Amino acid sequence: MKLDSVSHKNLYRMGTSVRAVSPFLWDAGLVAMTLPKRAGLGLKFAIGERRSAGRIMRVNLEVTTRCNLRCGMCWWWGKNAECLTDRARTDPRNELGTKEIFAVIDRLANYKPSIYLSGGEPFIRKDMADIIEYISGKGMPVILTSNGTLMDERTLKRLSEIENLAINFSVDGPREVHDAIRGDGVFDKVTRSMKRLIELRQGAYPVVNSNTTFSPGLLGHTDELARYLADEIRVDSVRLQHTWFASAATARLREETFEKIFGVRDDGAMSHVMPKFQNGYVSKLADEIALVERTSYGRPVFVNPRMSREQIARYYQEPSFSKADRCVVAWNTLVIRANGDVMLCPDGWTREFSLGNVRSSSIGAMWNGEAAGRFREAICAKKKLPACAKCCALNDGVMGLQ
Known about the structure:
Strand order of the largest sheet: 7-6-5-4-3-2-1-9-10-11
Radius of gyration: 20 Å
Number of domains: 1
Number of helices: 17
Largest sheet: 10 strands, mixed
């Protein structure tokens, strides 16, 4: 079966026959339209298109940095979040308003990208369903990740009627694991939202996925969780994500490198610093992943990135190791922050390097402007910057080239 001839809807139903396809792009339902372009992304480096980019394929639209939960690992609101979170950035009065977001979507419509709505928790905004409906109505795929706690029956009913929508619900583990991280009763809220949305939908949309990050607390429960999500919730796919982290030394090196290249001091990488993972944990994690990958759950189960046992050990023990060698996100993805600032990196720690703001600059001018060219030139020279090694956008095998 040719991937470029398959509809988004059918791709979601194909199951494990496409397990090797990038889970990162699986979010968008974009496998068919994006995978054939991978070679073209790599050619830009070979033929010298270092500063310019073609069509915007994906937009990461951060609708808010606010959240109703306080998870310890979160780079916005967790233990290391001081370097990213300040009053100006989290004040809802600085966020793009509903009409402003609609205007941005109108300007993006000619590019026909997929739109990934990020946060914070998107549904902390009262207009979230309006925004999703507006994007879908323009014919663009909509993808978002949610903690699932703020969806009432009316919201779920509206979501169930939207085409080209995929929602990733964050599930950290079985009830005791999930609630230890997110708070008492949160597991029941998110699983209720998932179940109810699946019950309400009339066709393939919205696609309902679970998204889980590997953690020491999950160890010993991965198979149990995958079975529960596949059998009881009946999600369209179970997604298991390797931890996104940096060592303190790597984060400091990233700050120094960024300042040297761009003249901007940005300490945001410190939000991703975690203690070193012990060898015993990494070995047991590799065992659990091997079990999951050889088990049939009746639903697609993705591990992102897919790695051999040796690669898993290197990923967690070597700060600079990454599955992919070179990042190409800056050539296909536009990032719009909650306050309208535009960037080329989907991570929160590049917040001080802006291409401009959608309130005052044209998208086309920013996409291939001088600042964008400087950023792409630096990525061409460095392949990836320090602290980028564990980024899921880099390591998924499509946004990063090996």
